[in-house]
Amino acid sequence: GDSVTQMEGPVTLSEEAFLTINCTYTATGYPSLFWYVQYPGEGLQLLLKATKADDKGSNKGFEATYRKETTSFHLEKGSVQVSDSAVYFCALGGLNRDDKIIFGKGTRLHILP
Amino acid sequence: GAVVSQHPSRVICKSGTSVKIECRSLDFQATTMFWYRQFPKQSLMLMATSNEGSKATYEQGVEKDKFLINHASLTLSTLTVTSAHPEDSSFYICSASTDKETQYFGPGTRLLVL
Asked: What is the SS3 string spanning chain A?
């Protein structure tokens, strides 16, 4: 079935370090891909998305490129900040007729000052 | 734009009582609303999908009579946890969508059943 696999956390980095959070997916068809972020005590927010192969989603310095050949959508940021500490969820959707989104398990990110 | 609110944000109740959680899309009409449950340090588990004016579609393993969902209008859906027990304690999150591409999430409701 359709699924999303992302790297397990927690990931701990120093401020200004380079960030990569890996995400791969399995899907029948051509999904849209998303990254959601959940800050402590809050609900999920859409961080970025890509709807077709080779699209690059970007927001707040984060980027992810839809790679159909490797079925991946890795999240990257060149220089993280303490305020980026949160849980990041990779997700896919847009399949079938429904609006369901399938989430990965989430990766907790800690940024040290 | 695309703001979704939930009320209450936090609720504590006694075992055996029922709790209602509201989910509202504040500045748009949502064709579909979703209810999720999130366990500590885990991903979101989709509980049910609801469309305005029709019965909710529950995911496998989710008790319909336990988790009552009403989608009265294009901007309001409610989740009622009936006869709550301590194992129902969790973080409940709703989302609303207007198309297949994006869901807008509420801030969540933390339920604690004593």
From this structure: CCEEEECCCCEEEECCCCEEECEEEECCCCCEEEEEEECCCCCEEEEEEECCCCCEEEECCEEEECECCCCECCEEECCCCHHHCEEEEEEEECCCCCCCEEECCCEEEEEEC
